Amino acid sequence: MEILGFQKLSLVDYPEKLCSVVFTGGCNFRCPYCHNKSIVNQCGDTMDEEKLEKTLLKRNKYISNLCISGGEPTLQKDLVSFIKNYKNLGFSVKLDTNGSNPAMLKELLENKYVDYVAMDLKTSLDDYERVTGKSGFEKKIMRSLKLLKTYPIDYEFRTTFVKGMMTVKSIEGLKQMVHNSNRFVLQRGRLNNEVLLPNKEMTSYTKEEMEALKEEFRSFVKEVRLNS
């Protein structure tokens, strides 16, 4: 596992739980507003897995929940064995993913190795290439989306809203994608010079605009949340 970041304590990355967060290196998407620039570009020193395990075991009396984020964790070939190990050690595991590897996601779900999955939906399917900078992922995204709706697991879909990236048409497409899902989380994109690909066309939604968007999705999803 290429581990490029570690946060001992997070109050926000695992719903209703305190957790530690591991950040894996690399991503197969290039969303301009991404705030994990160094991790996506695989910059920095990797963390030793044995050292990580010792650190987590010392703290698991107080924190026994682990969030695996990135980058995109499913690019790591040994992700399944990594998660399986922590499940065997008694940890509850949350996975953050962009949904581009449905085969690995299915393996994790079938074996009950993950307890919670947060899948990023970047935009509507017909706009994925423009936002992510990559083509040919639409079918995989839909396969992952359907897997999460099918398996008995706690999950959420979430989207980062950035003006210049999101259009009225893409918002309408997102509504259909998340229709009848358990939970949809709207995230207000925060822009600065440290994002992956700074662009003058990108601006942030106001808090009032995000509240209005939240109301638009309320009739499509069982639960809608706003991370502002």
Automatic annotation (TrEMBL):
Organism: Isachenkonia alkalipeptolytica
Keyword Chaperone: no
Name this protein carries in UniProt: Anaerobic ribonucleoside-triphosphate reductase activating protein
Segments traversing the membrane: none
A molecular function (GO) term: metal ion binding
Ranges where the Radical SAM core domain occurs: 13-228
PANTHER family tied to this protein: GLYCYL-RADICAL ENZYME ACTIVATING ENZYME MJ1227-RELATED (PTHR11228:SF27), RADICAL SAM DOMAIN PROTEIN (PTHR11228)
SUPFAM superfamilies found in the cross-reference section: Radical SAM enzymes
Alphabetic keyword roster: Iron, Iron-sulfur, Metal-binding, S-adenosyl-L-methionine
SMART domains registered for this protein in UniProt: Elp3 (SM00729)
InterPro entries in the cross-refs: Aldolase_TIM, Elp3/MiaA/NifB-like_rSAM, NrdG2, Radical_SAM_PqqE_MftC-like, rSAM, rSAM_sf
CDD domains tied to this protein: Radical_SAM (cd01335)
